[in-house]
Structure formats: structure tokens, C-alpha cells
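Second attempt. The first submission of ABC transporter related protein had a stray character pasted in from the spreadsheet, which I only caught after the job came back as garbage. Lesson logged: always re-copy from the clean sequence file. Corrected sequence (213 aa) follows.
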Amino acid sequence: MSFPIYIAAELTKKFGNKMVIDKLSFEIYENEFVYLKGANGAGKTTLLNIIAKLDNLWSGELKFKGVSLKKIKLHNYPISYIPDTPIFYEGLTVKEHLNFISSMYGLKDEEAREIVDIYVSVFNLKEYLNYLPSQLSRGNKQKVMLCCGLLKDFEVLIADEPFNFLDSDSIKALFEILSIIKSSGKTIILTSHEVEYIKSLIDREIELKRSVE
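This time the job returned cleanly.
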């Protein structure tokens, strides 16, 4: 029997007096590909930030493997989060970012080089390895951010609009990567305006509706 990896009950989030998530309840199971849907302003990014433990100021219940998410230490939480806006160290080149991230996640030199080389090839980043983030197009920034997020060993991948600004080849590559991640038994939670790219992978939809004040 399969058991839920996440259980939410009456999950509520406010920004000041503004209700963003109003008593949301859901379950997510291991090895599910979960698509968050909803209009702009419905709280999708806010929910992803909560699940990723970037926002602990919420009420209600949200458990990961039976333990309240608020009690789990971030370093013990086996997720990787790809935000909707790339975040970089402006003084590091693309290559330095990938080397730093892989070492931070404990990959050994040979293993790190192999994995980095695969993602650099898949996303056609070889000619940009010595570029600083400020020198990259928005699409290439997105690809570097995807590489950094995928270098981590995780049980749950959380991604906010990961297809944004990607060219057609990179869209196909990301779809294949997500397919492989799903087939390996891991859980994926994401939001995307490009649902046609992923509809064949979706196991569960969670719909958020904009709160009416």
C-alpha cells in the first residue's frame, strides 16, 4: 500500500490581512508527478515556498512523512528547489557555479565532473562556462539554474515554472530529465504555464483558487 509523503490539512497563509492560501488540504504520494494549477495570484509560488521550507509563517497542518514540516531541519529535508527567478553569485562564472554547487552537495570530483558534463551537454552550455551570470541571456540563466538544482541528490523536486525562457531543444531535454526522475521513484511538484509540455507525466493536480476578500 502506498502512503502519502505530504499531508496538508487546512493549510492557511496570509500576507498581512490578505488571504493567499485559505484552508487548503491535499495529499501527495511518493513517485507522483504533481501539477499545481491556478490563475496568477492564486498562491502557487507561495505554496511551493512553503513546501520548500522557505516560508514557515503559515497555519494549519503540513506533514512530510508524518512529521510536521516546521519541525524538520532544512539540512535533513531531502528536496531540491528550482525557483521561478534565477539566483546566482554574480562573481562566479557558470563553471564555478557548477563546481561550487556540486562540491557543496558532496559530489566527489570524478562523479561531479561526469554529472556536470552531462548537464552542460544536454543544455548546450559549453560555450558559456566562462561567462558571468550578468553576461547570460535569460534562457541561459534558466538552464544554469536547472543544472544547479538537478545536481543535488533529492527525494522531492520542487520547481516553479522550470520551462520559462527555454528554447525548444532545452524544453525537450527537461521533459526527458523529468521523465527519468519520475521513473526513478522520486516525487515532482511543479507549476508551469506550459502544461502541454508535461501533461503526459501528471499523476495529480492540485488547484489553487484566488481568494476573494
